[in-house]
Amino acid sequence: EIKINAEPMEKVFTKLFDESTQENPKRKLEKSFENLKWSTNFDSVVHNLLKSEEDLSLYSEFAGRVFLGFLAIKSHLHLPLTETTLDGVHEIILEDLQKKLNSKSEGKKEEGLEEEVLPEEGKGFRFTISTDLDFLLRIYDIPSVSAIAIENAFFQMHSCLTKTNELIISLRSGSMEKVQQVTEWLFSDTPTETYLVGNVRTKEKQTFIYESCVGAIQIGIPPETIKTSMRNREDVPQYYLLPPQLFAEEVNFGEIEFPIFFNFFIKQAFKNPDNKVSVIGDSAHLPRRPRCLGLCTGSYRSENPRPSIIFLI
């Protein structure tokens, strides 16, 4: 009697079935964009050599469409997808691309633009969208982008631009494995962080320190900030920058009284004006502060030549 163990064969058929029904990662991206009513042809960039004005425009529009789609999904659809928003992003990306191509034609070495050979089309260029702070600021200045409250917006924008570059490179090289990695990132619950560049570090929640040539400049002044400095064994700053929005998450980030008291009494600013506190704000902050400052220090007067606090506009 011959007995056949069917279990291994069953596993083989199950595996084959799973592989045959596994969705192509590029098709999965296209369907996700269709669900957003933001249909995108992911083949449109594959054969683009970036050698004509039409090529540049189509490439930039595709990159902008993918970036905005990524940003909408990662921000849980907080960003409304409109052709007006796309026009703004398209214009910024196209200008960046043209600038890099012009530098290349002048013989200058330009980061983000390299020659490449496409499998079917021949020799062309590979363009990488800029992800630096200036570029992010230009995108954020688009009214329909800045009007939406996206958590850690600059971190999200930087991540989505980076993944847009990775996707385009993967599509043009035919690497479905890399496309799959981008797809997994898009639909994973990735944590967001505060976007920091240069000599900026986090001091406490929503409060930052910028190390400048004149010393530490603190951005935001929550109530317990003096205790945080002492707990971290750091010097209490003399320079403070008020954020545009003073109240967030039921916290006042304009508690200027505590640094004033500390520098006035502990650092003895009343004896040495060099230890006075400097608070930098704008005209919207000023009407709320003079009475408070006068009560705290007794020296906030425009005629006082050496006040213990300076409010710069």
Could you characterize the architecture of this molecule?
With 313 residues, the protein is an alpha/beta fold. The protein has eleven helices and ten strands. The chain has helices at residues 6-21, 25-35, 53-74, 83-105, 133-140, 143-146, 153-173, 176-186, 225-231, 257-266, 290-297, and strands at 113-118, 122-127, 200-204, 207-212, 215-219, 239-241, 247-248, 251-252, 277-280, 309-312. The strands form three sheets. Strands 3-4-5-6-9-10 form a six-stranded mixed sheet. α3 packs across α4 (83-105).
Give the structure's gist in a few sentences.
The protein has 313 residues and is of the alpha/beta class.
SSE order, one letter for each helix or strand:
HHHHEEHHHHEEEHEEEHEHE
The percent range for strand residues is: 5-15%
Contiguous runs where pLDDT drops below 50 for at least 5 residues = 1-7, 9-21, 294-313
Task: Quote the average pLDDT.
Answer: 78
Largest sheet descriptor: 6 strands, mixed
Query: Radius of gyration from the CA trace?
Result: 27 Å
Counting copies of identical and different chains, the oligomeric state is: single chain
Tell me roughly what share of residues is in helical segments.
40-55%
Number of strands: 10
Shape: elongated
Structural class: alpha/beta
Strand order of the largest sheet: 3-4-5-6-9-10
Distance between the termini: 96 Å
Number of helices: 11
